[in-house]
Amino acid sequence: MTDSDALRKLDRAHLWHPFSRIDAIEGEAFPVIERAEGVWLYDTDGRAYLDGISSWWCVNLGHRHPRLVEAARRQMGVLDQSILGNMSHAGAIRLAARLAAATPGELNRVFFASDGSSATEAALKMALQYFSNLGRPERHRFVSLVDGYHGDTLGAVGVGYVEAFHRPYLPAVRRSLEADSPHCFHCPFAKEPASCDLECFASMDAVVGEHREQIAAVIVEPLCQGAAGMRIYPAKYLRRLRALCDELGVLLIADEIAVGFGRTGRLFACEHAGICPDILCLGKAMTGGLLPLSATVVTDRIHDAFRPAAGADRTFYHGHTTCGSPVTTAVGLAVLDVFEQEDILAAAGPAMAALAGGFDRLAELPAAHRTASLGMMGVVELAGASGGAERARRAAAVARERGLFVRPLGNVLYLWPPLTTPVELIEKMLEHLTAAIEEATAGNS
Questions:
Q1: pTM exceeds cut of 0.70
Q2: Which domains does the chain have, with CATH numbers?
């Protein structure tokens, strides 16, 4: 038995994998990754894989970026942990100030958490307590988009319910109101980008208008509904949503946990629309995937509603043991340093253009229904509702055999490589993905 086989045997006996069928783990010789560098993952059998999804969308600066590793190592030798309850530390202070300066508009107060779901939970609770503190407890409902996804804790599931993932938890979940999503690949109004007048927004308009006195906030993933199948939609939707929320006094929560920190070609996706949400959720790439850290960033107006008033304690009683820890915030600061000092977004321009060109070419495949790209992400939906998901799974398996790691979302395949990926490796990923789709769909496109 090889070392890899021994590890897989031990894995199957003890490890519970996220978002993974048990029978697939038991029946598959899955890779056991032992090291990584840059865009590459290396397994215990000596095979190399291009990381086509930035290890679940977080390794925006590549694996083991030396400045991030050094920041963590240096901080561990000085201060490992210090809580933020009635005390502070320099890393949290400085990162909060840097995020306040980097985020759009009037976002100025930073609440740290550990993962994306935790940032969402904080955002929802802040919105509810904000209106409660203002004497408006009847504003206790949320609006989200159909097929939205905002994490897997129960509050997050309430505003991002995915039937296939969350059905067993429904009795314990408080569902949000839902508006139709801007699903451009399958526009119910048969519009193309040139003729689109956001007919799909009528659903949001109707839901928010009907329940305006009950709604605390609308929550959306700006520009791309990730888990729904990388549904990229136009910035003008966000502009219209911001105007609607302003008109009716509803808070707008932008979940940029996946798309923040450069993924869309701007540091934050909301910048494409020129809008500022009331609450911004960040995570994943905050530490370049090195350590778990997330944040919920709000305006002073929201923060100040939690000050004691007329003898009432309006404290936000919420937090996590390691939220904003010294080591994670040190790496978060290093991430912002790298973005600024290495001009990451400008440097990534040629690779983003190569990715966009590659997905334009993928659109010509007989098996492709539609393709889209934005920044450093590209998506192709395979044609045919029946069997598309199985073909996407086969294509992902073929891609892995060729040396490209991707994970399908239903009948959708996508590339989400690190922002630091060289153009020649973008082309190599596209080559592998194209060949994998052709092989997996031969004869049944």
A1: yes
A2: 31-64+348-441 (3.90.1150.10), 69-341 (3.40.640.10)
